[in-house]
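hey team, just a heads up i'm posting the complex here instead of the shared drive bc the drive is being weird again. everything in one block, sequence lines first with there labels, then the predicted structure for the whole assembly after. its three chains so it's a bit long, scroll down
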Amino acid sequence: MSTIAADARLSSRALARAQSAVRLRHYLSKTGTVVLSLAIIVWSIAPIYNMVLISLEPEGDVFTDHIWPRVPSVESFWGVLTQGHWYLEHFWRQFANSLYIGAMVTFFALLIGSLTSFAIGRMRIRHGWLVSNAALLTYVIPASFLAIPFYRIMQNYGLSNNPWSVIAALVAFATPYAIFVFQEYGRSIPIEVDESARIDGASPPQIYLRIYLPLMAPALVAVGTYALLLAWNEYLYQFLLLSSKSSMTVPVALAQFLSSDQSPWNYMMATAIIYAMPPVAIYYAFRRRMAAGLTMGGVKG
Amino acid sequence: MGHLTRRSVLRGSLVLGAASVLPVPRVARAAPTTASVWFAQGFVQDEDVALRKAVADYEKASSNKIELSIIPFAPERQKIISALTSGVVPDVLDSNPNEILQIYAWQDRWVDVGDVVESQKGQFSETAIESSTAYNNVTKKRAIYGVPLRAAVVPCHIWRPLVEKAGFKIEDIPKTWNAYFDFFKKVQDGLRKQGERKVYGMGFQVTANGVDPYNLFIAFLVAYGGQGIVTKDGKLHLDDPKVKEAAIKAAAYLGGAYRDGYVPPSAINWNDADDNNAFHAKLMVMDVDGTLSTEVAMKEKHPEWYFKDMVTHGVPGYPTDNSGKPVPAVVGVTQGLIPKGAKNVTVAKEFLKYFIQPKVLSEFVELGLGRWLPVMPAAAKSPFWQDPKDPHLKGYVQMGLLGPTLPDYYVYNLAMAEVRTQHVWSMAMIDVAKDGAKPEVAVDKAFKRIEEIFAKYKAA
Amino acid sequence: MNSVSAVDVSRPALHRRTLSRSLRGSLKGGEYTWALAFVVPYLVVFVTFVAYPVVYGLWMGSDASLYRELFADPIYQSTVVNTILYLALGVNVKMFLALLLSGFFMRPGRWMKALLLIFVLPWAVPQISTFISIHWMLNGEWGFLNNVLYKFFHIEGPSWLNDRWMALGAVIVSHIWKWTPFWTLILLAGRMAIPLEIRDTARVDGATGLKGFVHITFPLLANLYLICTLLSTIFLLGDFNAVNFVSGGGPANSTHVLATLGIRDAFEIAHPRLGVAAVMSALPLVIPLVIVLMRKLRTTEVQL
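-- predicted structure starts here --
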């Protein structure tokens, strides 16, 4: 290899100089790495630490200048879990609503997205590109812009205060991205696989179920996680479309705390932390598959 | 694999398509004797309990059912606007915020409820009745569109311990307007000398969020003689020198207090609940805030605050104007409204008639711990309100019901409601407070904007 | 039409140019029906929940007098400035950081993997929780940031959210905080998709470090970077949560962006059509972006 030849060409003094230079670069790079890593950790964790800090403080202490809880108490978490405060009366119901909406959005985004990209990308339906471009049009007007017309239309469909209105909105916004990722990922699966199955007499649904879906598994996980996080992160539509305490989701209930004048802030942060756990858990459970899904041809330039 | 026909496949795909759109929505088909009622959630649980009791009592007394939705007050505002925009409305809703009565009456969106109010004629205070009327730009007439349920005024709330810590006594507080508020500047100076870095004399809501800044400014405007800014006939009088002078004085005082450091700097970002929270955290000695929510919120958890440490200056206590004359209190009245297009107007009216019976209405207000005021002067004489052991209720009800009161200006001209939502007065205060603008300049700017807004609502 | 029968690919393609054939393309009979069936669900979703609201929204915002009223609102101009700043800084700083960090995270090692997990936390935790936390952190009187500054450095921190530019900066930083991990992951995946041979050859030829990046990596990533930037711009244009929870639009309505202004007009001023007009006024910016994006995505596949 040329490096060996390069080495051979250098004089020994130059070699020594080069070696110490390399050592210096390594040292700098190592320190640089450590510094950067520390910076990343502090930067990423700070607001989350603040959440934990407030949630562990007993009620009166929230407005003080502590930087760690002097008398840490988990009463706020206990209060949330036992629905022990007036504002938290329906917490478990609302948490269930969030879970339900998240699960449904994920399921339908995956189902509809994969079916569509199968038809466009594998079955190569004519004018399929029209559909994927139309899908992209969904993003022309960003989600929050459509909120007001959407509200009105949901009234017309009779879906007011119904979680399905939120599910419909979020599925409509998540599916184009799903189609995009599935298309890209699907490019790395040779079409011959489908063809040979066809020759063996498989029908399209069978190809879809037995061949396409299993091969797409990493992409499915990646998109599913994205859809779930989208639903979990979303606030505006849930706020506009769900208004009764029993149909609300946790973010909407959380925001209510903000406009109350006897809010137990520590309870609120405890709620926020408990709410944050499912998506974090799911992300960490699926992180490797997610990376694979995004990598293998998923986002080829 | 069975024999696939085109029809079966198409059917299958339609099912798939339909399934993707989702399910049979729950059809809310109201039985003929059910009415849906929306009401804002209270700030304390007792208010909701009181409302539920009144509703339950009505259901027992009549044979009708009420579908009650108690909605947190901020989402309820959005819901109401969305409902009125889309036309899918409940049978009864509360005026959240109060001026939606006037705003939507202009567009002919409410059912005339004169007959309901008539059933308790003579019981209501004059201000309450005035507040329930509005001008309808479609019928070109004024009519009664709201049923008064409860009211609120804007008293001053003070921490006794902080005043005493600075070496003063509550009794030392002067009686006239400027001197009254200047007193708290002295309290702050006194506290600073003792090393209290984080306490401020006054919690003026110098912010552009919520309704508090408007209430604050109007209180000062009225106290300085600018009462005639909008007259009963709906005419705007910005050219009245008294009004202009009052506005300038108000902007100067309020903005100046912030600029000079007597108001917590974070006030500029406050929404309607933040000032209450700040008050509870003892960030300021005094605040000017609507209703007794500041006190009532603490009654359960910190009774010693409620009974000893917090002082409410309704009447007596609330300052007179600088020449010693009492300042009329501006009253906001929560009304029951029936939107046009409601499915069950009959039951709605019946329910409201039931609700405003003096016994029922007083119980509703009293069970809510007195955060809100009654709208019937007779109710104010009850032992609840006149309880000598309660330090807040008597003064509150005297200020808001028995003493001289005024309806809010949007009752005369709904354009004032938009002045409020556009936070025009807030900008005047903030210009003086943060940008060091001269009060005259800030008020000129505000007046210009107010004229633009009023121009939009010229009765065609 | 022919009855549906099992597809027989081995049959030679005798195409009679009927209209139905050309529509179906290369699919025959039953397959075509299946393909249709698979596409129909999305089409239904699209028409019912995207096309209709868009058209309705356009109708709601179609009154010219709305725009006159909108431009007369003193807040509108500062809102537009805020939106542009938010976009320019938010997108570019974030994508630049994502690019750099994606290179950083390419390094091997368990420590890197652990660090990546921590780095992704801001994205994984719901923004309502974190943005409210940031809002409180920045409180001038008792916020965490000022407490830390005072305890460790004896500096009295300012009221971060009291000044328009600091508040806007806080919003931008919050957005970057939340979304950089996501785009870093995407760019990281893009980097890893660069075949190993190319990377190795580059190293052998001495094109390492900065040179390697400029001459080898970036050109290959360029298309992806551009697509991500465009997508991010479009998402950011509609971003409501950062402004709403971090600065609340304050102080004094000076940090609104078009999305939050629309909601304020719709629900606080009780003028929904004005709210729609506010967000529609961004269309002249959005539509060209989306057209470019669509073109880019179709001509994608810079095959390596």
